[in-house]
């Protein structure tokens, strides 16, 4: 693996890892794991459909 790919992997891990740790530490205490997972799934579904709509209307 060349140096550029290795650097990109580190950037990806840090870019995804830091917000994940930040969001986990600020979850309210009365939230269950299933609620957190379902909220995450709902978030990704909404983002997916928003991107698809923007592509359909040729905005992006």
Question: Can you put this structure into words, describing what you see?
Answer:
- The chain has a domain at 30-60.
- With 60 residues, the chain is mainly alpha-helical.
- It is flat.
- Helix content is 78%, strand content 0%.
Shape: flat
Integer average pLDDT: 87
Please give the number of β-strands.
0
What is the helix fraction of residues, given as a range? over 70%
Radius of gyration: 16 Å
Largest sheet: none
Number of helices: 2
Cα distance, first to last residue? Answer: 33 Å
- Quaternary class: single chain
Q: List unreliable stretches of 5+ residues.
A: none
The secondary-structure class comes to mainly alpha
What is the N-to-C order of secondary-structure elements (H for helix, E for strand)?
A: HH
Strand content: under 5%
Summarize the structure.
The chain has helices spanning 3-25, 33-56. The chain has 60 residues and is mostly helical.
Task: Give the arrangement of secondary structure elements.
Blueprint: H1 3-25, H2 33-56
What descriptive keywords fit this protein?
single chain, mainly alpha, flat
